[in-house]
Design brief:
Length: 354
């Protein structure tokens, strides 16, 4: 059996929780898991599976990318498109949709396209930071701090604009060469695509209005039934393991919070840097759960969102990008991702504390 990243996370978190059960002498305590958040994440995962397999997103994205004739233009278009899609479809899903198209363009052009994929990974982390539904850590914080959409976007807009501007600057000064592709995009199943766009909209609006868990469970049920009716084989393509991983993240990290004290030293600067650095080791979603509701939403949000770049494990989006690079090019990925992390961390510090 092939060991995927999600299965490895499942194994590690499962073993960690087994140890915690022995230490706490309790299998489960009320409040460890935010089941409403799990329902939101699960509905997004199932709905996005339908969107991917409808062929609609691939068709639209491919047509946009096909107009590019050189690497630099492809880089700029990829950064903008990935950032935009990550705002609404989450950072990892945007990469799952767009990276295969980028790889196809590279194959038909006969060029190594790794640098574009690396920039797409960074763009996915940048775009997803702006919206409360752009990534799992934002969904968690949005609910934890009882924010509204305007408050969230207003807080994240400065670092988003700066980060996107830096990434576009990197893209503009990147070495250019000619890319040509005559590949035609797939024909989408428009009815299937339209249904899942509607379900995605319902999920997003429901989350913004703090809807009951039954709405999201209903979306999941309708999604699964639709998959069975339209494309039965796609039901097994839903990332059920990732859903279990999110549940285990809550169980493990909230249990750890009951056993130890998080060393934030009570200060905003320390929280900003410690959450960013911890994200490099255990990823930004577990870090968000582990820190819980600290005194400042902005400080924690900047820390874990900026901290999504850097190491390969800092974000699931990074892992998705890396496994699609030819030769698993760690060095090239780390060079760009760490440089971007250092620059945006400096700007984040200035925005928050200067």
């Amino acid at each position: 059996m092939k060991i995927t990243v999600n299965k490895l996370l499942l194994l590690v978190l499962g073993l960690a929780y087994a140890v915690i059960i022995l230490l706490r002498k309790s299998i489960y305590s009320a409040g460890l898991v935010d089941w409403n958040t799990i329902a939101i994440l699960s509905s997004l995962i199932v709905v996005n599976t339908g969107l991917m397999y409808s062929g609609g997103l691939n068709f639209v994205a491919y047509r946009i990318m096909k107009v590019t004739k050189g690497r630099r233009k492809l880089m700029i278009v990829s950064v903008l498109l990935t950032s935009f899609m990550a705002m609404f479809l989450t950072n990892d899903v945007s990469l799952l949709v767009l990276i295969p198209i980028t790889i196809t363009i590279g194959k038909f052009a006969g060029k190594n396209i790794d640098d574009v994929i690396i920039f797409q990974a960074i763009a996915a982390n940048v775009g997803s930071m702006l919206m409360p539904f752009g990534n799992p850590q934002n969904i968690i914080m949005y609910r934890l701090y009882s924010l509204n959409l305007f408050e969230f976007v207003r807080t994240m807009t400065p670092i988003f604009i700066v980060s996107l501007a830096i990434l576009l600057l990197f893209s503009v000064i990147f070495k250019d060469d000619k890319l040509e592709s005559h590949e035609t995009g797939p024909r989408p199943h428009f009815y299937f695509f339209g249904l899942y766009l509607a379900l995605l909209l319902i999920t997003i609006v429901g989350m913004l209005l703090n809807a009951t868990i039954y709405l999201f469970l209903g979306v999941i049920l309708v999604s699964i039934i639709s998959l069975l009716l339209f494309e039965p084989q796609t039901v097994v393509k839903v990332d059920y393991v990732l859903i279990v991983v999110f549940i285990l993240i809550f169980l493990v990290m909230n249990s750890i919070r009951l056993l130890i004290t998080i060393p934030t030293f009570g200060g905003g600067v320390q929280t900003f840097f410690s959450s960013m650095l911890l994200s490099q080791v255990i990823s930004n979603v577990p870090t968000t759960v582990l820190f819980g509701k600290v005194s400042s939403f902005a400080v924690l949000s900047y820390g874990v969102n900026i901290g999504g770049n850097g190491t390969v494990v800092a974000s699931l989006a990074n892992i998705i990008a890396l496994r699609n690079l030819s030769g698993k090019n760690f060095l090239k990925f780390n060079k760009y991702s760490f440089l971007f992390l250092v620059i945006t961390a400096l700007f984040g510090y200035l925005i928050l504390f200067a």
